[in-house]
Design brief:
about 280 residues; globular; Hypothetical Protein, Haloacid Dehalogenase-like Hydrolase, Chain: A, domain 2; 6-stranded mixed sheet; 8-stranded mixed sheet; 14 strands
Length: about 280
């Protein structure tokens, strides 16, 4: 950990990435971390679970942490959809522009990368399924449907596309997609084997201000915790941006504070020091 002069202020909203941040290496929330989050909510603080996951993969965690009782929020698809856990209402939603779908499929046709998206309850995958596709299925615990004609299968509103494949191949195609869709779509890694394609300008950091505005909370009253590249905008935007001890070096560089790792109760220990009264 690093020493830091943190202004002791009343953080009213706490945004938490899930994988690698809230959950440990076993994909579990430790008892100590769960207790700290319940205590924070009892003190009137709101929790927002900010993840690249589909809402289905976030709801069980939200229920376990009693976000429905305390009026917390789910931010799914890296900010593409924000849901009020108490009312079930979608507060913010940004849709993926489907006019780019056929072109993306064309760009990836000679690759070994799986293209995935989501309806309300399922993962829709093209027929180049690989081991990493199943990682996503197992994380969010949703049914996976494999289709031969991806473009024809996706005739409904979506929030994001997820590419799954070998890290080196994803890096090559990320460079191609970034050049091709510069200023049109956002393309970034959320794990070495996952590449997210999002509506332009939709990040955790760009969508949080919309929620803060609705809640009447200032950014100085927001704390955010994360570990990966898709958390950087959120950590940079928050009044108190925290990188986990296991975070990518670039994430640590832009944070206000580096706490212990996700396997060493980094969130709970930081709550004890700076957030809980």
């Amino acid at each position: 950990t690093q020493a830091l002069k943190v202004n002791f202020m009343d953080y009213k909203l706490i945004a938490l990435d899930i994988d690698g941040t809230l959950t440990n290496s076993k994909k579990e929330i430790s008892p100590r971390t769960r207790y700290a989050l319940l205590e924070a909510q009892k003190q009137g603080k709101k929790i927002i679970l900010a993840s690249g996951r589909h809402p289905i993969g976030i709801y069980p965690i939200a229920r376990d942490l009693l976000l429905d009782r305390y009026g917390g929020f789910i931010m799914a698809f890296n900010g593409g959809k924000i849901i009020n856990c108490e009312t079930g209402e979608t507060v913010v939603s940004k849709l993926f522009p489907l006019e780019y779908l056929a072109d993306i499929v064309g760009v990836l046709k000679d690759s070994n990368i799986t293209i995935n998206t989501y309806d309300d309850k399922r993962i829709i995958s093209d027929n180049k399924v690989n081991d990493y596709t199943y990682v996503e299925r197992d994380i969010i615990k949703a049914e996976m449907v494999v289709v031969d004609d991806f473009i024809s299968a996706v005739k409904f509103n979506i929030n994001k596309i997820l590419l799954a494949g070998e890290p080196d191949e994803l890096d090559r195609y990320q460079a191609i997609l970034l050049r091709r869709y510069d200023g049109l779509l956002d393309v970034y890694k959320s794990a070495p084997y996952f590449l997210e394609i999002m509506p332009f300008g939709v990040t955790k950091g760009s969508m949080l201000p919309l929620l803060l505005q609705k809640l009447g909370i200032r950014r100085e009253e927001l704390a955010a915790f994360g570990d990966h590249y898709n958390d950087m905008t959120m950590i940079g935007y928050a009044g108190f941006g925290v990188a986990m001890g296991n975070a990518e070096p670039d994430v640590k560089k832009i944070s206000d504070y580096v706490c212990e790792s996700n396997d060493d109760d980094g969130i709970a220990k930081t709550f004890d020091r700076y957030i809980l009264r």
